[in-house]
Amino acid sequence: APALPHPTPDPTMPHTILVVDDSAVVRGLHGHHLRGAGYTVLEAENGFVALEVLAAHRCDAAVVDVNMPLMDGITLLRELRAAPATCSLPVAIASSEHDAHDVALGTAAGADAYLVKPTAGAALVAVVRGMLERAPAPTPDSVAAPRRRLARPGG
Prior knowledge:
alpha/beta, globular, 5-stranded parallel beta sheet, disordered N terminus
């Protein structure tokens, strides 16, 4: 049976932000700051888990680490940009890698913003807010979550 699309977002409901980082401490800090700003937060510890979360939940933006096991943030970003359901999802890279090459790599993969960790809570919230303000209005096709299953390495 075909998957039913997620409902069209209700503008009165808080935005849902996906935080993807292999560090539980960083996920907790980012989540704390975003929840404090009124956002709903979902978490994933790597790119594969992030894709599973996005297949089950509608998210309005994501904050993604670069260096993670199983699927890194750049690979995740490329997967998101290649899928019709997530190609316009606002994504900020949050990484401890901050030289020009790393920023260019994130930008080339389709990042909407690049944050250097450790990231101040106010800066994180400002970047997410800015991405959401610039995001195109959702269409029925863009709110349907991707439904393909990805094989996990070694499994």
